[in-house]
Amino acid sequence: MYSFRNVYKFIKPSFLRQSIVDSGSRSYATMSTNPQTYKFNHSMIRVKDPKESVKFYEYLGMKLIKKIEEPEAKFDLYFLGYDSPKAASHGNHWSDREGLIELTHNYGTEKDPNYKITNGNTEPHKGFGHTCISVDNLQAACQRIEDAGYKFQKKLSDGRMKHIAFALDPDNYWVEIIGQNPLEKTEDIKTTDVETYRMNHTMIRIKDHEKSLKFYQEVMGMSLLRTSENPSANFNLYFLGYPGAGDQGVPTSSANGVNPIAGREGLLELTWNYGTEKDENFQYHNGNDEPQGFGHICVSVDDLDAACQRFDDLKVNWKKRLTDGRMKNVAFVLDPDNYWIEVVQNEKLKERANW
Known about the structure:
Blueprint: E1 16-21, E2 28-33, E3 39-46, H1 50-59, E4 63-70, E5 75-81, E6 100-106, E7 128-135, H2 138-147, E8 152-154, E9 164-168, E10 174-179, H3 183-186, E11 198-206, H4 209-219, E12 223-230, E13 235-241, E14 267-273, E15 294-301, H5 304-313, E16 317-320, E17 331-334, E18 340-345
Parallel strand pairs: 3-6, 7-10, 11-14, 15-18
Antiparallel strand pairs: 1-2, 3-15, 4-5, 5-6, 7-11, 8-9, 9-10, 12-13, 13-14, 16-17, 17-18
């Protein structure tokens, strides 16, 4: 959530209890955190013109859930997500959701003709790949977006993969579009209901799949829900998330090109290209080094202090501890590829920041 404008195998998570010492008072406090209650809350991307970006994501059916204005620091944050009565998180507090997109706008970029975003898909700045929405009727949904004048990186008819498309947002970030239903059942349907859409996943590229899977399962407490191996194309995809309805017995593949977890929100897709782990000089761009674009993913937790203590005990690398800087309600962990992971309090479970 915080933008740092000036920078500035399945393992089931366990319930963890810890006692820590306050060295000042010598008193003891018992803190607990349960990773099974965590939520993959949002993914942050920087945008040039918030009016155009908000308009685009609202056209995809999202609503502005929360806006945080920081005029002194000269940036605003826009949190968008699905919130219709059919949405998975309808009516929830913004911190008690999965599948939000955070748009960070630094004042003045919309007036700067030279300001450009890196979308994470061009060399030498590859890293972040895309966000993904799942829709009811894939063909009709893609046609609706095209009719509105938005561009595509890949249409359904392009290439070999006829069951996915990639739309481009105003900053040329890729938005994957996948179907919730078999293609042959939706090919003659001309309508689409945006209230049924889901913000399904966020994709990042990783160097070493073993290190990243270990980190996201053992440290962040996620579960590996699905693996898609593609040896002929030299890459694998790993989909992880926190516990949700329908996770048990998820098949690794499905007929008709339908992703078996397309109905979920708040998933993380890790893309591993074979061999990168063997190149000691290889690294991905995390989006926060120049040129900037993608910022971070964010996990909301049951008890922020206890969760950060747990991360400390697991010897994570920190970008920002809770005690660093003036923002005492957010922390940032670094994953094995130096992607930033924001950690915030789920305000439904425990009030802290009164966002």
